[in-house]
Design a protein that fits this description.
Layout: H1 2-9, E1 16-19, H2 21-24, H3 27-35, E2 39-44, E3 49-52, E4 62-64, H4 65-72, E5 78-84, E6 91-103, E7 113-117, E8 126-130
Parallel strand pairs: 1-2
Antiparallel strand pairs: 2-8, 3-4, 3-6, 5-6, 6-7, 7-8
Length: about 140
Amino acid sequence: MDLISRALDEGIPGEVVLADADYGRSHVFRDFIRSKCLDYAVAVGADARVWLLDDDGRAPRAASVRQLGIELGEGAFRQITWRDGTHANRKLSSRFVFRRVKPAYDDGRAPPWCASRCGSSSNGPKARAGRPSSSSPTCVAA
């Protein structure tokens, strides 16, 4: 966090912080990033607990990101291709679902987006969380 503060103090350009799950599981880190008015995309574990928001912005119950992906079902996931791969004629793609959620520790701030990737392993969906920007939602790819 000190490095981010120093970069901001020095005027180094950048408005988005990307971080792995070690940082993503820390609400202290995510709250710090938000306090600096930066957008972020961080990995979170499939066991991270969130509240799925309904159309009225209410969250009836908390569930793990893994359980959320299971409950939404395979039909909710859509194929997303984001760039060419390193092999000729191979695109990088996976299946994702995007939903507005609130972290289970609800801090009263604007709810982030949760992008879950449909995994083929027994570990279930992988997840990324991001704060929506003021102009448009942040869609976060794995």
